[in-house]
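#lab-general

N.A. 3:47 PM
ok so I finally got the sequence cleaned up, no stray characters, all 197 residues accounted for. can someone with queue access submit it? mine expired

B.Y. 3:52 PM
send it over

N.A. 3:53 PM
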Amino acid sequence: MLGQLRTALLARKITAAGLAAVYRYRDADDVRRDLDGLYAAGLIDKTGGDAIQATESGRAVLTEMYEVSADVAAELWADQEGSLVDLNDLAERLVHAALASGGDAYTTMAPPHEPADAAVGLLLHTRLSVLRYHRADAHAAAWQAAGLTSSTISQIPAGPTRVAIETDTNRRAGAPYATLSPDERITLLAGLAALPG
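B.Y. 4:20 PM
back already:
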């Protein structure tokens, strides 16, 4: 859980509503137990209104996670340095554009914490990591519009209802990408497809 919340916990407090959105498919008691483990380890503490924040020890662990991610990205994408800059710029634009249409999970996780001295590979990795929460919110909005819940959506078999929900999800999730030109979208798609890993 600490690793998943790293981009948010280094940037801001996380509200109870934000946690519920990020973990909308998990059992609430399981989430509470995971949070209790983080409290017990001294990595997070509670703030007003049931929000959580990283402690000093938690921030140290999260910072180390960022450093490991930076090292892995640098090694994995060492031969892609030229294209990383363009991809990173496009990802940054998407992260900010998605704030206009993102739901509670996205606004909990984004914009991500970005160290001042962060290498381009780490920035790209971090920005792409948070964009998935925009799609998660789009999916939730689509199944809610169809009158479903987080538990009933998982029981919908393949078929017209599932297709309709996925089509609505794609429409909602596409909003930030519409801010890019067709050429920029192709550059992003091709560039990400070419990245190792």
